Amino acid sequence: MFSRKKGRGRPPKYKRRNMIIVRLAILLLVGVICVATLYKLDVLSNEKVVDFGKGVLGTVSSKEGYEISWREKFRDILQKILATSKNSVLTKFKESLEIEEDEVSFSFALVSDSHEDVSFFPKVLQKVSDYQVDILIHLGDLSNAGSLVKLRQAKDFLDQSGLNYLVIPGDHDRNWVPNHDLQNFVEIFGETTYKNFVYEGICFILLDNSDHELGVGTGQMKWLKGSLLEANRLPIETILVFTHIPLYNGVFPDKVMGYSSSNAEVSQQREELLSLFEDFEVDYLFSGDVHHFSQYFEPESRLKMVTVGAACGEDCKNFLPQFVVVTVYKDGRIEIVPKPYKGLEDIR
């Protein structure tokens, strides 16, 4: 009978550790391949993945939004694994996936509530410019009280940015003395306070609901209905609406059109707007005013709504200046990504 020497029969500790790492890596790779195969065979569809996340508050912008997020994250992981593999079988599997980059049609940026800020607003505009967006839309409250000096200052910042921009007024852009109106705003920006246009097959409708006591008014409401009817007649599949004051807010219910108004008709206008947007299948409603980014469905109409945050600092009770980049893909999908200002040391 042979005697076994001490230490024989079991590999050294470092070899056992390496064996465990190798086995875990193999299990991870097998798992990734299995998930990829399920996607490829449509056993595990994007819709099924979406069902797992329907109840997540603040991230229910659309099924397309989930699809982009899950798919891109999965692609990144899979590409990293397959890119380092020299195995011929895995190489063929990689080729069979046909992973291609999504084609972008165009992109635009949204800012809001800069409130006379001279420290962060210009920096935010510079960061927007770095993204080389086609259009910038400011959703109002460029000033605190609608003074000519402060509105002109905000326009100078926008002009110096070199961006192709449009502006709608906020409630703070109404000159409070002597009349609570938009005379100064119109004088500085030289344009109507509401407008629409079509860009790359997308209909943009910019509304003016800056007056708490008037709402949108009968003239603008008539114009809006005509604009929606015209968009319905054109070969347009996507309609985007922009306002300063939200029509619904899942975080701050009191920060909505009509809530602080003594005129009950403004709340009725809000309901009429929601009904119109539902009937004409508006794809997204973007708003400012509330100084935070959020996205959600309006409970009754199921309209997809986004608030874009504020492009100002602590002086306007906002600790994270930010903007939003919206990317429109050629297949019609829309991706909405908040971009917080990264200079936190400046904020501190």
Q: How would you characterize this protein structure?
A:
The structure is a single chain. The chain has helices at residues 13-40, 46-52, 63-83, 88-97, 121-130, 148-161, 183-189, 217-233, 264-279, 344-347; strands spanning 104-111, 135-138, 165-167, 195-199, 202-206, 238-243, 284-287, 293-297, 304-308, 322-329, 334-340. It has 348 residues and is an alpha/beta fold. The protein has two domains: 13-97, no CATH class; 104-341, Metallo-dependent phosphatases (Purple Acid Phosphatase, chain A, domain 2), CATH 3.60.21. Strands 4-5-6-7-9-8 form a six-stranded mixed β-sheet, covered by helices on one side. Strands 3-2-1-10-11 form a five-stranded mixed β-sheet. Residues 1-11 and 43-69 have low confidence and may be disordered.
